[in-house]
Amino acid sequence: MPAHIMLSYQWDDQPLVKRIHDRLIEHGLAVWMDIEGGVTGNINDAMAAGVEEAAVICPIMTPAYQASRNCKRELSYADSREVLTVPVMLAKDWEASEWLGLVTAGLLWVDFRNAETDDEHFESCVQSLQAEIMYSAGHLLVVPEVPEDVTGDEPEPRERRPPKRKTGRRFLHAQSMLYIRESGEETMDPDSDLRGKVELHEEPGERGSWEEQKGIGCKYFRNVATGGYLGYLHGEDDASSQPSEDCLNTTGSPKREECVFTKTGSHQSEDHEYTTAHLEESGDCVYTTDSPVETERWLLLADQMDQSCKRAVIIKNKHTGRFLAVQGGRFVGLTSYTEDCKWFLE
Questions:
Q1: Strand (E) or helix (H) holding 124
Q2: Is the entire prediction scored with pTM above 0.90?
Q3: How far from chain centre, in Å, is Cα 127?
Q4: Which regions of the chain does DSSP assign to beta strands (E)?
Q5: How is the chain split among helix, strand and coil, in percent rounded to 5?
Q6: Residue ranges in the chain modelled with pLDDT below 50
Q7: How many helices (H) and strands (E) does the chain have?
Q8: DSSP of 132-194, one letter per residue?
């Protein structure tokens, strides 16, 4: 049996999951669902086979899913076999916890919270799910062959084929509509390490694609074109870096060779969001380097505040604990979420 996508869900959500199943099938993907021929004979053997032959499993996350013993057994078995997992979030104002939170920790879930609003919204959600599946497991999926020869006077319509797997992610800032990309220039840091300059640009170009690599409790983003790992430093969090006030110019280029930094205090507003004036003095540095260390560790999480049905995410530097954001056409690091922290995946 070809490697397939397995849909894991709690029975109450069957109508929506069936719609997802049908749309993915129409897109030319092999999909396993229990009521669509997935279960024959002994149910436990059938479920085990579904997991064992899956390239990716999609848990449809709700409180009922988390409370289900069968769902726990199914997803835990998939996790033990290291099956790639692409979670789908269906419940509003809820976060996975307990065993489900453990299994899905650090994974980027696809937002289906408003999928049933209308058909257009549902289609956008399915496109996001397909894109994430193809990015995570497209190299493992076996796409059913489409017959070349047809009979009859009229040619039969060809089955729709899924898009090719992308090797990297592109990050588009939701407010400024600027992409993260390497500029093609290099600079030296105080320790004589060669670093690549990172900029914000209207077009991603060939240096605007980032390969995601899994670390221990984090992710690394490696530029597909140059091989440099995306990094971030904030002056107040790393005194040894001593970044200057122009460490980050309007294109986001780090200039660490000129570093002189004076602490200015937190300058926080009442809701604990840094002001633009303080951030411009903070010495934020976004760069790439050949060898990833602490400052190149990231978390990529779904933006729970977003209602757009797009692939909205937040990018958080694990070393500094700051959200990567854009204000005034330049990178900044924020200690709490604002709309400036929102990015779209492409």
A1: helix 119-137
A2: no
A3: 14
A4: 4-8, 31-32, 54-61, 84-85, 88-89, 110-111, 171-173, 179-188, 194-201, 210-214, 219-223, 229-233, 285-289, 298-302, 312-317, 323-327, 330-334, 343-345
A5: 25, 25, 45
A6: 1, 150, 152, 155, 157-158, 238-282
A7: 7, 18
A8: HHHHHHTTT--PPPPPS---SSSPPPPPPPPPPPPSSB-EEETTT--EEEEEEEEEE-TT--E
